[in-house]
Write a structure and sequence with these properties.
The protein has 628 residues and is α+β, with helices and mostly antiparallel strands. It has four domains: 234 residues, Glycosyltransferase; 99 residues, Immunoglobulin-like (Sandwich); 148 residues, Distorted Sandwich (Coagulation Factor XIII, Chain A, domain 1), CATH 2.70.50; 63 residues. The protein contains 18 helices and 24 strands. Strands 15, 18, 19, 22, 23 and 24 form a six-stranded mixed sheet that branches. Strands 4-11-10-6-7 form a five-stranded mixed sheet, with no helix packed on it. Strands 14-13-16-21-20 form a five-stranded antiparallel sheet. The protein is flat and about 120 Å long. The N and C termini lie far apart (118 Å).
């Protein structure tokens, strides 16, 4: 019996899916974007605005005059598609010019028209009441042949959309599951198709509609639904009419698919106080509608855990529906409102569950604080002064560089229990109004075993944090916490610090500095001065010395006269000397304008030619010498 009960409990836990959404698509914002687009003279903007409004089932504005006066390129099939379908959506097809039909006819007469052009042409003719496809099988074969040339997701989307018109949804169903598996995944959270929102919207909507026509269950798995929904949520901030219409089409198709993705989020404030102990939870589908088939009693807070110590504070607590609002449920946390802190609440709606964090805000009090000044070495007992909140010290304390200032206090809740807070600081700030820059420092108050906070300020050690400026400083205790409704800033009093003989008066260190709000001194940038060049005469003499060997060679050739009688007349000899001369000339060009890499690219083939022709020339010379 116990085994069967345990087995049933495990099945219940496994049946709860943690996949929920953290937001919904705001259809009202998208509607306002679409309404603004109906005043546009651009045919694309007008079409997407009317399409989105028709999907939202909003009354269409009168745009017949805009369609009649619309400017478009009759040779641009996409613009013709926008115009004709905008006229169909608004009931203004009678205002179209007769030439709009000729554009789609020309495209359909082409044998190798792109799939995008075919899509625009077919739906343009459909808008004009001329879109009947008599030979469905032959048309599908032609589309499949075109798809084989480019089977990208966008082309599949066009074919699926044309199959909706031609009645070949069965072919769509046979390829939809494989295409869904090929969707791109980002951050292991969102699915989309290559091409972004336009392709994802067209594919999702056509696939879901095709399966409904065939009366088949959706091919989308639960994981795919939520990941596609996450992608659409990431695009919910669109501002253009095109983006709004595409988002509306995909969101409505996904929300109407069974089962629809569910959103469970906190609505409004995420904390409770002693005066307000309820939290509103929004449970809706992907577009903010009530979840179909969800009963109010199925919305339950399964558990509540305090994050500080993992103590369970509530279990199996039902939520109550808020009046006639079927998407808003109220969670009553009156049982834990006295125990301030952060809590993790596990919420379930039917078979879905998610975790939300809730803060229980409490009030803190600091009844008094003990302030004392004593020697650093502890040779004398410190003089303790007690100050009650929110009063200040009656006198100004004094401390030199051989003393320390001590502050000790405890933080308690409304039940007078000592508590710890996330932020406990003591702010020490200069009170010299003449200082251009106010010196201040913040010191952390650490709790002891009894949860009492203590700060010891060694005057000599803190001098470096305060610019060693002796003078009057204010002491302020700062207390705060993410679960505290009344953070405390308590000016405790003033103290005069004397940092020793090497110290300056408060504000003296800043007098030489300019005010932070004033203009800074101009920064002068100077490049490194160029090194001096030698005189022109010295450069010319050096150049002549470098050219002297070449000049000497030319003079000797002129005196001795070059004897070319023994020059081989073989092609290899001519090719060798030309290649060698070209290599020497290449070095000259390198010195003038080429880079090292460009020179290497030209030198490699020249070197190969020089090597082969030189090898052949030497072999020929050896053979001729042997014959002699």
């Amino acid at each position: 019996m116990h085994f069967r009960a345990l087995f049933f409990a495990v099945l219940c836990l496994l049946g709860l899916s943690s996949a929920t959404l953290q937001n919904t698509i705001d259809l009202q914002r998208l509607e306002s974007i679409l309404q603004a687009g109906t005043k546009s003279n651009d045919v694309a903007t007008l079409y997407y605005s009317l399409k989105g409004l028709s999907l939202l089932k909003v009354k269409m504005p009168d745009v017949c005059k805009a369609i009649k006066d619309a400017k478009y390129d009759i040779n641009n099939m996409e613009q013709v598609f926008y115009l004709t379908n905008a006229a169909l959506l608004s009931g203004c097809t009678n205002y179209l010019k007769p030439d709009v039909l000729s554009a789609s006819t020309r495209v359909l007469d082409k044998k190798e028209a792109p799939l995008s052009e075919l899509y625009y042409a077919i739906y343009s003719q459909k808008a004009l009441g001329k879109g009947a496809v008599w030979d469905k099988d032959e048309a599908l074969k032609n589309l499949i042949q075109l798809l084989k040339k480019d089977d990208s997701p966008v082309n599949y989307a066009y074919v699926f959309a044309m199959c909706e018109h031609m009645g070949c949804e069965a072919w769509t169903a046979s390829h939809a599951e494989g295409l869904l598996l090929a969707a791109d995944e980002s951050d292991s959270r969102a699915l989309h198709f290559e091409g972004g929102l336009p392709v994802t919207s067209l594919l999702l909507s056509t696939i879901i509609r095709s399966y409904k026509v065939l009366k088949k269950s959706s091919p989308l798995t639960e994981e795919q639904r939520y990941k596609f929904a996450e992608y659409l949520l990431s695009r919910r901030s669109v501002t253009s009419q095109r983006g709004a219409a595409l988002l509306v089409e995909a969101a409505l198709a996904l929300a109407d698919d069974e089962p629809s993705p569910i959103s469970i989020v906190i609505k409004g404030k995420k904390y409770i106080t002693s005066e307000s102990d309820t939290i509103e939870i929004s449970v809706s589908d992907f577009i903010g509608r009530p979840v179909r088939g969800l009963k109010p009693e199925e919305v339950v807070a399964q558990s509540g855990t305090r994050l500080a110590d993992d103590v369970v504070v509530l279990s199996k607590q039902p939520l109550t529906q808020k009046g006639d609002d079927r998407t808003t449920f109220i969670l009553n946390l009156s049982k834990i409102k006295a125990q301030y802190g952060l809590y993790k609440i596990a919420l379930s709606a039917g078979s879905k569950t998610t975790n939300v964090n809730v803060a229980v805000l409490g009030e803190i009090v600091v009844s008094s604080i003990e302030v004392g000044v004593g020697d650093v070495d502890g040779t004398t007992s410190p003089k303790i002064t007690t100050v009650t909140y929110p009063n200040k010290l009656n006198e100004i304390l004094q401390a030199d560089h051989l003393q320390k200032l001590t502050l000790k206090f405890s933080v308690r809740d409304k039940q007078n229990k000592p508590v710890l807070v996330q932020q406990a600081f003591v702010l020490v700030a200069s009170k010299n109004a003449a200082a251009a820059i106010v010196d201040e420092a913040i010191f952390v108050a650490e709790p002891d075993n009894s949860k009492a906070y203590k700060v010891e300020l060694n005057v000599g050690a803190i001098a470096k944090h305060l610019q060693s400026g002796s003078g009057t400083y204010s002491l302020t205790v700062l207390l705060g916490d993410s679960a505290v409704s009344n953070p405390i800033s308590w000016p405790v009093g003033d103290v005069i610090f004397n940092f020793g003989k090497d110290a300056s008066a408060v504000g003296a260190a800043q007098k030489s500095r300019q005010p932070a709000s004033g203009p800074l001194s101009e920064i002068q940038h100077q490049f490194r001065v160029a090194e001096p060049r030698p005189p022109r005469a010295l450069s010319d003499v050096f150049a002549l010395l470098c050219c002297a060997p070449l000049l000497l060679l030319l003079l000797l050739w002129a005196k001795l006269r070059v004897n070319l009688s023994y020059f081989p007349l073989a092609p290899s000899a001519l090719l060798f000397h030309l290649a060698l001369g070209a290599s020497l000339g290449l070095y000259v060009v390198l010195w003038m304008q080429l880079t090292m890499f460009e020179t290497m690219r030209y030198l490699l083939p020249l070197g190969a030619i020089t090597f082969l022709s030189g090898h052949r020339l030497l072999r020929r010379l050896v053979q001729e010498k042997g014959h002699k």
